[in-house]
Task: structure prediction
Amino acid sequence: MAKRNFDASESAQRCLRLRKKILEMSQKVTALHIAGAYSCIEIVETIYFHLMREDSKGKLLDTFLMSKGHGCFGQYTTYLSAGF
Result:
């Protein structure tokens, strides 16, 4: 899941895939505000894929709390992509 080396191209491609997933989800529910999710996707992706530390068994050592209510679908899609 968490990677120490940052590859900007890989990160940009992952964010594009996450945005596509958010858009797909937005077509299935009526309460989704995609702008909030879109606006924080790079931050959430960077935190989960590049900054969060893991122990040798893959357990996360860090905790990330996001208080941006309309951004939750950005976090949910990142969870899925990271294997949660």
In short: Residues 19 and 38 are 6 Å apart (CA to CA). The longest helix spans residues 8-26. The radius of gyration is 13 Å. Helices lie at 8-26, 34-51, 72-82.
